[in-house]
Amino acid sequence: MTDKQHPEEHPVNDIGDDHVLAHDVDEEPVEANRRLFEGGMLKLVTLLAIAYSSFHLYSLNIAPLETWSFRIVHIAGALVLGFILFAGARFVSAEDGPARHRWTTWIGAVALVPALYALYQTFSFHQMILDGTQRVPVDLETWHFGWPLLAASAIGIVMSWFHQRERSRFSVPDLVLIVCSVAVAAYFLVVYNTSMRMSTGTSFAPVGISFAAIAGTALIMELTRRVAGLALVIIGLVFLVYVFLGPYLPGFLGYPGLSVQRFFSQVYTDAGILGPTTAVSSTYIILFIVFAAFLQASKVGDYFVNFAFAAAGRTRGGPAKVSIFASGLMGMINGTSAGNVVSTGSLTIPLMKKVGYSKRSAGAVEAAASTGGQIMPPIMGAGAFIMAEITGIPYTEIAIAAIIPAILYFASVYFMVDFEAAKTGMRGMREDELPKLKTMVKQCYLFVPIIILIVALFMGYSVIRAGTLATVSAAVVSWFSPNKMGIRKILEALEIASYMAIQIIVVCAAAGVIVGVISLTGVGARFSVLLLDVAEASQLLALIFAMFISILLGMGMPTTAAYAVAASVVAPGLVQLGIEPLTAHFFVFYFAVVSAITPPVALASYAAAGISGANAMETSVASFRIGIAAFIVPFMFFYNGALLMDAGWFDIARALITALFGVYMLSGGVLGWFARASAGVITRLLLIGAALLMIEGGLWTDLSGIALAVVAFLAQRQSKLRPAST
């Protein structure tokens, strides 16, 4: 943890005798606010991280815990590790002089007293219940547990905003937050394993549940701010404010209202924080993060990128096409679009600039390709698992349905890249600049873990069993590669998995707060009614409205949280319109994913711009244009179920072929390149019209699209024959 570099610090042209380009693609990026410990503290954190990942593997495969207890420990562990690793304020360096705001340490030390007292009370409650007490006295829960816990949590959070120390130093305010996180978890483990669990959401619920839930929600929001930024926190706070202001709002937003105690006695249950999002993060997501960490430890990411260079690097604009393939492979096992940009873009973006792409275009291609990794089956950046949990549709059906949309998305990005390379006369990379394809093919056994995962899933194994088999196979396969995984490497993989998991776990918990508000206030049902009213005027207008809401809810959020929130608000309304649940959820999922490249808040584009050195807003506009197929194809799910494999084989094949032809023409129309020449305005409009007709999928629309394409071709040919003006 102390000597890891940012990926962008690795050399991009370090080509040895074997011409291998990718080095340390698998290295874990170190966030700006992450502490880098040394000595004994480093060993302690490493042990905690290994224990956290091992706990999940043990509980999922050998000795399952009671469901709520498992999820409570899952969140508490992420909070503890998160507050240890991620600082609440920027670090100070030697140039800044001595550490600032020393008073935060003393106030934090004072706040540690009520935090420890609240934790002590949870053990006394446990002893009282063991002694036969049916219900803990209200005064004891309020004054000896609740208020001390809230006071300590509030002081710890506020002090952490001002506490600035060196990067290798831990902080007392964060120690307060760790104790409060443990106290919240301990209280819930005590109460939820008694009959008092049945009283949540009623006036009979112990008041301590509400105190613990308020503190727990605040801790989750604070760690979310540290690891994912303010976007999700602001949206979550807006929803929380709505709980108490909703009764005073007019129209469909109004509702009868919930008291503070009644709401918070339910929000930390399976109706909210412990609900679907945490159910998925504590099982499928954590397991596949461990799988991804094992792949990283065995340097499979380096192989993916080098294989892509060997296969596509020679073609015109080669590094951009490599970006598409490499980001698709890396992105499906990476839970965030922006994280995917950082891992592969640090290599591909400089090489794209080297062969002639502008800074803006290089960043845009990487952002669009990395975002596409989130819709790439079989893993789909964990989104498929949340969709399976929410809809009840088997995971294998979701993975199969995602195949054609993923092909269309990546084909569209490929055509865009190829046309731009042709239009500007870019070259590919030379033979002596690239890895040898023959050498890469000899190492194709490194794909075996992913193949085992796919085969196991389609043989009927559970997702957990399939993921575990794939993880074990990743270690076994590494024994045949130069990066063999022994005990030390396996422990390192478990450590990396915990660090990778913190962000997505806390984000899923924060999304659970929003989901809880939606389900407990009924705002989702009222939004469905509004969508039905819009659909009476026009069903297409209702879909467009749903698209904008999905993108708006997803802006600034990681994919997993974006989909979870949008699925709670938008998807039920689409289902009520008569759309199949799978189609409705794919519609929402796609727009939640592409919010990462949608201006003005495009996280993937901003990450790419940081590497390329281009203007962030210009990069987001360019990536939006490159990924434009992702904004059109979801509308076609509604009109043509064959795009989601919901038809006979002939109809599926015809839909794939015509849609591919459609995205080809869409790319030509958007970029202004067709039939090996620049296209004029009329030709571009004809191409876009033909593309929309071809993607739609009906027989007459396909024929009409072909006719328009022929007209565009003839117009383009005529313009090429026309003598150039001086």
From TrEMBL:
<keyword id="KW-0472">Membrane</keyword>
<dbReference type="Pfam" id="PF06808">
    <property type="entry name" value="DctM"/>
</dbReference>
<feature type="transmembrane region" description="Helical">
    <location>
        <begin position="561"/>
        <end position="579"/>
    </location>
</feature>
<feature type="transmembrane region" description="Helical">
    <location>
        <begin position="175"/>
        <end position="192"/>
    </location>
</feature>
<keyword id="KW-1133">Transmembrane helix</keyword>
<dbReference type="InterPro" id="IPR011853">
    <property type="entry name" value="TRAP_DctM-Dct_fused"/>
</dbReference>
<keyword id="KW-1003">Cell membrane</keyword>
<feature type="transmembrane region" description="Helical">
    <location>
        <begin position="103"/>
        <end position="123"/>
    </location>
</feature>
<feature type="transmembrane region" description="Helical">
    <location>
        <begin position="273"/>
        <end position="295"/>
    </location>
</feature>
<feature type="transmembrane region" description="Helical">
    <location>
        <begin position="586"/>
        <end position="609"/>
    </location>
</feature>
<feature type="transmembrane region" description="Helical">
    <location>
        <begin position="530"/>
        <end position="555"/>
    </location>
</feature>
<feature type="transmembrane region" description="Helical">
    <location>
        <begin position="204"/>
        <end position="223"/>
    </location>
</feature>
<feature type="transmembrane region" description="Helical">
    <location>
        <begin position="496"/>
        <end position="518"/>
    </location>
</feature>
<keyword id="KW-0812">Transmembrane</keyword>
<comment type="function">
    <text>Part of the tripartite ATP-independent periplasmic (TRAP) transport system.</text>
</comment>
<dbReference type="InterPro" id="IPR010656">
    <property type="entry name" value="DctM"/>
</dbReference>
<feature type="transmembrane region" description="Helical">
    <location>
        <begin position="655"/>
        <end position="675"/>
    </location>
</feature>
<feature type="transmembrane region" description="Helical">
    <location>
        <begin position="143"/>
        <end position="163"/>
    </location>
</feature>
<keyword id="KW-0813">Transport</keyword>
<feature type="transmembrane region" description="Helical">
    <location>
        <begin position="72"/>
        <end position="91"/>
    </location>
</feature>
<keyword id="KW-0997">Cell inner membrane</keyword>
<feature type="transmembrane region" description="Helical">
    <location>
        <begin position="621"/>
        <end position="643"/>
    </location>
</feature>
<feature type="transmembrane region" description="Helical">
    <location>
        <begin position="687"/>
        <end position="715"/>
    </location>
</feature>
<feature type="transmembrane region" description="Helical">
    <location>
        <begin position="230"/>
        <end position="253"/>
    </location>
</feature>
<feature type="transmembrane region" description="Helical">
    <location>
        <begin position="398"/>
        <end position="417"/>
    </location>
</feature>
<protein>
    <submittedName>
        <fullName>TRAP transporter, 4TM/12TM fusion protein</fullName>
    </submittedName>
</protein>
<feature type="transmembrane region" description="Helical">
    <location>
        <begin position="41"/>
        <end position="60"/>
    </location>
</feature>
<feature type="domain" description="TRAP C4-dicarboxylate transport system permease DctM subunit">
    <location>
        <begin position="217"/>
        <end position="645"/>
    </location>
</feature>
<feature type="transmembrane region" description="Helical">
    <location>
        <begin position="444"/>
        <end position="464"/>
    </location>
</feature>
